[in-house]
Amino acid sequence: MDIGSELYRKTLLTISGNSLVEKLTLKYGGKLAAKFIASQELQPALDVIRELNRKGIMVTLDHLGEGIKALSEASGYREEYIRLVRGIAAASVNANVSLKPTQMGLALDAKACFTNIRAVVQEAAAANNFVRIDMEDTPFTQATIDMVKQLHREGLTNVGTVIQAYLHRTRADVKDLIASGVNLRLVKGAYKEPAEVAFQKKSEVIDNFKAIIRMHLDQGIYTAIASHDDTIIRWVKEYAAANRISPEKFEFQMLYGLRMNEQAKLAADGYRVRCYVPYGKMWYPYYTRRLAEKPANLMMVLQNMFR
């Protein structure tokens, strides 16, 4: 990442970690956060999915929550995800599921976390649906990968995870997970990580991102590319065309509230597009990471504030 954008990201993440800032944002910022969060409840989120589906856009539905402090909270999230999976099936919408390991208790009890996640994956398997286990910051990277591989060994292959291009370990992880048959979402990475574990220069992250995309496309593996970067999107289009890779072999993934017109245009142009749609009341950590990604996101929120 370049020095300016990295300084902005680290500064905003530091500020958002202040308890007073969090308290004030939660009290007054709900309407602003609605730019990036579909709703606080499931049913309105399903309505959003229907509208996106009508535009040819698939969805990943995420019930917000992470970093819980008691396993009883994890049980509540597990039950909400089971309700979510059933809600998707009942609504007959084109959407799969995304969840965070710490939401299910990974930081408290790894065994309990695995049991909670397995219950959601089993429910999704019964509904012929797919679960994406999000990747959080590096203290949880290996544990997340291990859980996904264990679920596959148990025959629950309707589960995948996320790989972050800014980590030094990423290419080795991709090679290992491809060999294990694990479906991956490829992203740049949005957490604050030190130079010991992550690339700090934007050019290095982009190079690694392209490398892991090629590792998929060149082997004919279905590829989920999560990026709002025009440079990456254009490069994928050109690489696929030059190598006669069908648009059916990959999908572009973007976040709800960001570049919605571009998502619709890509879908209209015949590309597979999936929108990451979050809902729920625990929106603050997700919201602050979206603002930290680039100054333009913060400016967009500030403009809405004064309208």
Automatic annotation (TrEMBL):
One of its GO terms (molecular function) is proline dehydrogenase activity. One of its GO terms (biological process) is L-proline catabolic process to L-glutamate. Binds 1 FAD per subunit. It comes from the Bacteria. It catalyses: L-proline + a quinone = (S)-1-pyrroline-5-carboxylate + a quinol + H(+). Residues 46-298 form the Proline dehydrogenase domain. It is an enzyme of class 1 (oxidoreductase). Its cofactor is FAD. This is proline dehydrogenase. The lineage of its organism: Bacteria, Bacillati, Bacillota, Bacilli, Bacillales.
